[in-house]
Amino acid sequence: MRIFDPHVHMSSRTTDDYQAMYDAGVRAVVEPAFWQGQPRTSVGSFVDYFDSLLGWEPFRAAQFGIRHHCTIALNPKEANDPRCADVLEVLPRYLVKDGVVAVGEVGYDSMTPEEDEAFAAQLALAVEFELPVLVHTPHRDKAEGTKRTLDVVRESGIAPELVVVDHLNELTVGMVADSGCWMGFSIYPDTKMDEARMVVLLREHGTARMLVNSAADWGRSDPLKTVKTGRAMLDAGFTADDVDRVLWRNPVEFYGRSGRLELSDVDIDPTAGFQGSSVRRGQG
Ligand SMILES: [Zn+2]
C-alpha cells in the first residue's frame, strides 16, 4: 500500500512516528500550517514556523524516506487575534515557494467577522497565486459552518476542483459533494470520523474527490489512521486499486495542481544535516 497523507501535523510528532509511517507505506505528506495549541503573540512566531515547515521538517521527513510538503496560511482560530492580523501580509512571499502546495488551513473556527475577513482574503490569494486551498470546517455547528463555508468559497470565484473542504462527516459530506469541491476526512482514534464510518461513506459516495487523512497533531491522534482506513476498505471488499486511488492518486491529483509535488524516492543520507542540526543523537 502506498500512502500520501494529505493532512498531518508532523512538527508535533516523533521520529518513531516517521519510522512507523514509512514502514506502513507512507511516502508523502502535506503538513498544513495551523495554530500551536496556545496563542502566538507576534507575526515573527508565524514566520519562524513557516520557515520550519519549509526547512527543518522536510529535512526530518526525508531522513525517514518521506516527501514532505506544506500549506501556508493564517489559521481560522488566530485570525481572531489582532496581534496576528499582519500575517496576511507575509503570505505572498511564502506562496511562491517550492514545497508550498496550497493555501491552508483557512476557514471558520467560531464564525466571527474577523474570520470572515481572513478567509475571504486568503481565498483571493489562492486565486491570485493559482494554488489549491485547504479549508478547515468548524467542530461546533458543523452543518451550519460548512454551509456558510461553501457560500464563501462560491463567492470567491475559485474553481471548486481547487478546494478541499476538510473534517467532514455524515452530516456535511453531501453538501460538499454537490458543490464540486473535494471532500476531506480526518480519521481520529476517539472522536469524529473513524475507519468503519469512512468505509460506509466511500461506499455511498464513491472514491472520486475523496481525501482521507490522519490530521495527527499533539492531541490524541494516530498518524497511521490512513493505512488503517486502507485496511478497513480491503476488509469491506474494496479493491487494492480503490485503496490506491483514495490514499495515493487522489492526493496526488489534488495537490498536484500546485505544480510543486516532489514524489521521487528519497535517497536517505544518514549523515546529512540541516543548518548544522541532524536527527542523530549520541552518535557524534
Ligand atoms: Zn489540521
TrEMBL record:
Family in the record: Belongs to the metallo-dependent hydrolases superfamily.
Any one GO molecular function term: hydrolase activity, acting on ester bonds
Record bears the keyword Ribonucleoprotein: no
Entries under Gene3D superfamilies matching the protein: Metal-dependent hydrolases
Keywords: Hydrolase, Metal-binding
Matching InterPro entries: Metal_Hydrolase (IPR032466), TatD-like (IPR001130), UCP005295 (IPR012022)
Pfam families, sorted: TatD_DNase (PF01026)
Superkingdom as given in the UniProt entry: Bacteria
Protein's recorded name: TatD DNase family protein
Statement: the UniProt record of this protein carries the keyword Plastid: no
Naturally occurring in which organism (per UniProt): Umezawaea tangerina
